[in-house]
């Protein structure tokens, strides 16, 4: 707070503007604030600064009572006036008392000047993450689902050496199911003129099981004695 140099025209101008809507420097009664400012003047303000001149003439009437005027308008007790710089309009360069400064600094410490930026960055990061997740889910939905498959090598044995092996193979290959694909085959001797049918196939694990295959193949009981899985490999 402060008026600056009250002996200069600039200081008097500030004082005049300050008193444009006030009767006293502080409050509604004359106080040591008025005394401090009055004593800082070199004399009566010029006539064109009529607010300051009005105030000057009024306070001058209290000149003999100056020491007995209250410290401020809040008390009727006389006291010692404050430094001149403590009165008048707000002036950042003059600063307030240390308590006010500390309070302001504490308040400033509580203010997160970058809070809004962090929040915006957080929202931006969240938006980008959601977009990427959406893109990933979209690609994932379009990507063909991996189907578990297995390659089987089956040994299909006839009843004896008089079994028509061509007919037996025809019966085996006549088995058609979703998830079953027949592959190469050959006849393998097992002894005493008997040959077994060795045939490969690829199955989808979720659709075709070895038990189901065995049930269907051995259903041709006129030709098939048994079926065994000679090899089983995951694809």
TrEMBL record:
Keyword 4Fe-4S in record: no
Any Pfam family the entry gives: EF1_GNE
Keyword presence, Coiled coil: no
GO cellular component: cytosol; eukaryotic translation elongation factor 1 complex
Stretches for region Disordered: 85-130
A GO molecular function held by the record: guanyl-nucleotide exchange factor activity
Elongation factor 1 beta central acidic region eukaryote domain boundaries: 113-140
Family, per entry: Belongs to the EF-1-beta/EF-1-delta family.
Alphabetized PANTHER family for the sequence: EF-HAND AND COILED-COIL DOMAIN-CONTAINING FAMILY MEMBER, ELONGATION FACTOR 1-BETA
Its biological purpose: Catalytic subunit of the guanine nucleotide exchange factor (GEF) (eEF1B subcomplex) of the eukaryotic elongation factor 1 complex (eEF1). Stimulates the exchange of GDP for GTP on elongation factor 1A (eEF1A), probably by displacing GDP from the nucleotide binding pocket in eEF1A.
Assembly information from the UniProt record: EF-1 is composed of 4 subunits: alpha, beta (alpha subunit of the eEF1B subcomplex), delta (beta subunit of the eEF1B subcomplex), and gamma (gamma subunit of the eEF1B subcomplex). Interacts with elongation factor EEF1A1.
Name under which the protein is recorded: Elongation factor 1-beta
């Amino acid at each position: 707070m402060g008026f600056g140099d009250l002996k200069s025209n600039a200081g008097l101008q500030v004082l005049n503007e300050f008193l444009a809507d006030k009767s006293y420097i502080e409050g509604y009664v004359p106080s040591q604030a008025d005394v401090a400012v009055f004593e800082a003047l070199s004399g009566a303000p010029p006539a064109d600064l009529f607010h300051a001149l009005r105030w000057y003439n009024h306070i001058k009437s209290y000149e003999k009572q100056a020491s007995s005027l209250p410290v401020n308008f809040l008390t009727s007790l006389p006291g010692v006036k404050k430094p001149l710089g403590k009165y008048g309009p707000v002036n950042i360069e003059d600063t307030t008392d240390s308590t006010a400064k500390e309070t302001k600094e504490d308040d400033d410490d509580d203010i997160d000047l970058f809070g809004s930026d962090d929040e915006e960055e957080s929202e931006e990061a969240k938006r980008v993450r959601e977009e990427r997740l959406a893109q990933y889910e979209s690609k994932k939905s379009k990507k063909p689902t991996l189907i578990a498959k297995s390659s089987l090598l089956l040994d299909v044995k006839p009843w004896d050496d008089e079994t028509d092996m061509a007919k037996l193979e025809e019966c085996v290959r006549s088995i058609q199911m979703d998830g079953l694909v027949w592959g190469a085959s050959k006849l393998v001797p097992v002894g005493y003129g008997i040959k077994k049918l060795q045939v490969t196939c690829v199955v989808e694990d979720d659709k075709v099981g070895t038990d189901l295959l065995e049930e269907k193949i051995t259903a041709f009981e006129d030709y098939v004695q048994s079926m065994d899985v000679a090899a089983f490999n995951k694809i």
